[in-house]
C-alpha cells in the first residue's frame, strides 16, 4: 500500500483536528445517518481514553465509539480517483460516507483505504463517520477475551502488559490520484563491491504508453534509469545507507501518454544497503552490526498512542543522547512517520507485528489460575492464525521499502514451549520469508520457554530473548542473576550458532527513590541491574545486540500487578532521565 504523497499529479488533504465524538450505546441508532448527539469533540490523531477526565468510564470503555466530521472535496479533483485513508483505527474500523458503509478493517496498527470515487463529487460537502471498536478476541491480533460479570458489565481481558489505548491514533487523509496511476512500488537493495543494486517492481492501474524509472541522487542528478515496470538498477560507487549515516536516493516512477505528457508521478526514498546473517554475525553492508537501544511504546500523557511529531523528535534525540542506534517497534507497527524519520537519520529498526499475548502460560505460571492450553480452538487456533497471517501481510506491504527496517519480528513472548506452537508458527515464518526474502526473521522468546523447551527457535534467523533474572526471577539477587543469565546465553549460542539479541531486560524503578544498598525499585538498583547484564553480554560472542526494556515508563491496564504503569523506563513517562540513562550513555558511547 503506497504512502500518500503530494506530487505534480497527486494531492492529499488532512482531516486531522477535532471530530465530533460519541460512545456507542443501545439508544444510538444509525449514528452515521445524522450529526452525532452531544457536544463531545475528540482530537485526531489521539487515543480517546485519557482525554475526557469528566467521564472516567471512557478510559476503560469496551466496544465501539464514533467519530464524525464534514469535509469538502476540492473542486480541482474532478476526474481523479478519490479515496480516504485511515492510518490506524484501534482495533477495528468502519467508515461511512453519509449513510453508506464504504470500508471495514480489522487490525489496529496498519492503514486502510476507502474508495470514494463513485460516491463524492468535487466541490461537495461530505459527512464522514468512523466507528472504532477496541474489542479483542481470539480472532484478533493482539488477542483478548470479553468477560461479563453478574451485574452485566462487560470487561476486556488481554495478556499484553500495556494499556489498550483505542481510537484514531494516527492521521486521516483525503487523497486524489489519477485514474491511470502507479498502484504499488517494491524495492529490494543489495551491494556488490562498490555497485549498489536496486531491484524494483512497479504495478500500475489503467492504460499508459510508457513508464520512466529514474533513481535520483540528493542533488537531483539521475544515477540510474530504466523504461520497464520491473528490473534492477545498477549504481556505480553508490552512496550507501548506513546506521547513523543515512543516504537516500529518490526513485521516481512516471507514467506518460503517447505525446509524452506525464499522467502520474510517484516518488519513493530509497536507501541502498545490504542485510545478511552470517554465522553468529548480523551484517549491514557486510559489516558486523551491534544493536544498542530500546524496546519502546507509542505512549505519551493525554494522547496515549496518538502520534505527535514533537514527542517523536524529542524521543529520537533522547535515544541519540544515550548512544542508541536502534529500537524494536514493540509490540506493534509504529506510525509511518516514525519509520520515515528513522530512514532519514540512519536508525536501525526491528519491525514487529501486534502478535503479543499469545501465551496463556504466563497467566497460569506467573499470575496463578487455571492452566489453559494456548494453542487450541478456544484461543490460538485457526482463526487467530489467519488474523496473524493478515497482520504479517499488512506489515510487510506497508513497511517493505524502508531501509531502516532490517528485520521482521512476528511475535513477542509466545508460549513457544507448549504443544502446538510449532504448528502455529512454522507457516507464519514461511509466509514472512516468502513475502520478503531479503530480511531476516526473528521473535522474542520468553523465559518460560528456555533453550531446552522452546519448540520454534530453529525456525528463525535471529533469536531474540526477553530476560529478567534478578527481577521477576530471584528479585534483587544480581549475583545469581549474572550466573544464570551467562549460563543460559552460552546454551543458546552453542545449540543454535546464530545471532542472539536481548530484546528485553530491565527492572521497575521509581524515579527519585535512592538507596545506599541498591535495593529493588531504586535508581541505583536499576543501574546495577543493567551493568550486571552488560557484563554477561560481553562474555558471549553470539550476542549481537541489547535492547533495554524500556525507553520510557508507560501506561498499563488495571490490576494489582502495576502501580501507575510499568516503571522499567530509563526515562520517566514525561521523559526525565533516571540514573540508568546515564549508565547507558557511558556504555554505549564507549562502544562506537
Automatic annotation (TrEMBL):
Enzyme class: hydrolase
Chain ranges of the Glycoside hydrolase family 2 catalytic domain: 275-589
Domain (Glycosyl hydrolases family 2 sugar binding): residue spans on this chain: 13-178
A Pfam family recorded for this sequence: Glyco_hydro_2
Ranges where the Glycoside hydrolase family 2 immunoglobulin-like beta-sandwich domain occurs: 180-273
Domain of life: Eukaryota
Biological process terms in GO annotation: carbohydrate metabolic process; glucuronoside catabolic process
Alphabetical UniProt keywords: Glycosidase, Hydrolase
EC number assigned by the record: 3.2.1.31
GO molecular function, one term: carbohydrate binding
PROSITE patterns documented for this protein: GLYCOSYL_HYDROL_F2_1, GLYCOSYL_HYDROL_F2_2
Family (UniProt): Belongs to the glycosyl hydrolase 2 family.
Protein name stated in the entry: Beta-glucuronidase
The species this protein was found in: Saitozyma podzolica
Amino acid at each position: 500500500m503506497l504512502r500518500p504523497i503530494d506530487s505534480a499529479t497527486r494531492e492529499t488533504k488532512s482531516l486531522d483536528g477535532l471530530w465530533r465524538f460519541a460512545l456507542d450505546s443501545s439508544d444510538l441508532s444509525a449514528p452515521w445517518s445524522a450529526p452525532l448527539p452531544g457536544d463531545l469533540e475528540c482530537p485526531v490523531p489521539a487515543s480517546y481514553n485519557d482525554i475526557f477526565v469528566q467521564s472516567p468510564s471512557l478510559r476503560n470503555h469496551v466496544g465501539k465509539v464514533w467519530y464524525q466530521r464534514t469535509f469538502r472535496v476540492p473542486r480541482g479533483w474532478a476526474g481523479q480517483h478519490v479515496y480516504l485513508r485511515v492510518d490506524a483505527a484501534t482495533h477495528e474500523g468502519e467508515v461511512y460516507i453519509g449513510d453508506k458503509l464504504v470500508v471495514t478493517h480489522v487490525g489496529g496498527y496498519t492503514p486502510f483505504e476507502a474508495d470514494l470515487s463513485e460516491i463524492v463529487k468535487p466541490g461537495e460537502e461530505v459527512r464522514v463517520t468512523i466507528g472504532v471498536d477496541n474489542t479483542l478476541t481470539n480472532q484478533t491480533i493482539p488477542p483478548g477475551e470479553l468477560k461479563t460479570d453478574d451485574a452485566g458489565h462487560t470487561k476486556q481481558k488481554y495478556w499484553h502488559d500495556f494499556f489498550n489505548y483505542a481510537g484514531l491514533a494516527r492521521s486521516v487523509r483525503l487523497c486524489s490520484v489519477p485514474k491511470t496511476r502507479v498502484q504499488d512500488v517494491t524495492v529490494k537493495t543489495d551491494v556488490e563491491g562498490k555497485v549498489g543494486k536496486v531491484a524494483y517492481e512497479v504495478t500500475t492501474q489503467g492504460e499508459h504508453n510508457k513508464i520512466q524509472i529514474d533513481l535520483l541522487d540528493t542533488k537531483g542528478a539521475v544515477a540510474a534509469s530504466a523504461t520497464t515496470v520491473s528490473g534492477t538498477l545498477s549504481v556505480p560507487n553508490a552512496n550507501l545507507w548506513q546506521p547513523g549515516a543515512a543516504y537516500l536516493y529518490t526513485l521516481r516512477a512516471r507514467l506518460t501518454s503517447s505525446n509524452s505528457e506525464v499522467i502520474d508521478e510517484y516518488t519513493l526514498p530509497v536507501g541502498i544497503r545490504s542485510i545478511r546473517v552470517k554465522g553468529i554475525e548480523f551484517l549491514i553492508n557486510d559489516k558486523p552490526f551491534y544493536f544498542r537501544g530500546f524496546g519502546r511504546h507509542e505512549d505519551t500523557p493525554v494522547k496515549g498512542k496518538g502520534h505527535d511529531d514533537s514527542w517523536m523528535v524529542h524521543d529520537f534525540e533522547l535515544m541519540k543522547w544515550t548512544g542508541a542506534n536502534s529500537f524494536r517497534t514493540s509490540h506493534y507497527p509504529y506510525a509511518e512517520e516514525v519509520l520515515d524519520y528513522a530512514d532519514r537519520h540512519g536508525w536501525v529498526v526491528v519491525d514487529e507485528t501486534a502478535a503479543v499475548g499469545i501465551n496463556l502460560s504466563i497467566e497460569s505460571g506467573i499470575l496463578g489460575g487455571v492452566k489453559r492450553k494456548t494453542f487450541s480452538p478456544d484461543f490460538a487456533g485457526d482463526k487467530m492464525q489467519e488474523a496473524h497471517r493478515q497482520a504479517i501481510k499488512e506489515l510487510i506491504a506497508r513497511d517493505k521499502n524502508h531501509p531502516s527496517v532490517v528485520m521482521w519480528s512476528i511475535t513477542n513472548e509466545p508460549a513457544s514451549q507448549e504443544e502446538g506452537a510449532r504448528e502455529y508458527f512454522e507457516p507464519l515464518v514461511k509466509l514472512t520469508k516468502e513475502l520478503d526474502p531479503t530480511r531476516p526473521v526473528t521473535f522474542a522468546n520468553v523465559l518460560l520457554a528456555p533453550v531446552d523447551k522452546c519448540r520454534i527457535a530453529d525456525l528463525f534467523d535471529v533469536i531474540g530473548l526477553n530476560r529478567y533474572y534478578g527481577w521477576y526471577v530471584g528479585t534483587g539477587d544480581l549475583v545469581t542473576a549474572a550466573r544464570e543469565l551467562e549460563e543460559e546465553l552460552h546454551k543458546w549460542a552453542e545449540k543454535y550458532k546464530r545471532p542472539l539479541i536481548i530484546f528485553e531486560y530491565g527492572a521497575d524503578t521509581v524515579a527519585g527513590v535512592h538507596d545506599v544498598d541498591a535495593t529493588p525499585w531504586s535508581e541505583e538498583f536499576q543501574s546495577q541491574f543493567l551493568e550486571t547484564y552488560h557484563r554477561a553480554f560481553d562474555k558471549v560472542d553470539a550476542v549481537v545486540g541489547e535492547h533495554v526494556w524500556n525507553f520510557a515508563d508507560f501506561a498499563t491496564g488495571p490490576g494489582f500487578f502495576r502501580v501507575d504503569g510499568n516503571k522499567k523506563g530509563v526515562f520517566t513517562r514525561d521523559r526525565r532521565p533516571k540514573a540508568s540513562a546515564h549508565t547507558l550513555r557511558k556504555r554505549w558511547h564507549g562502544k562506537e
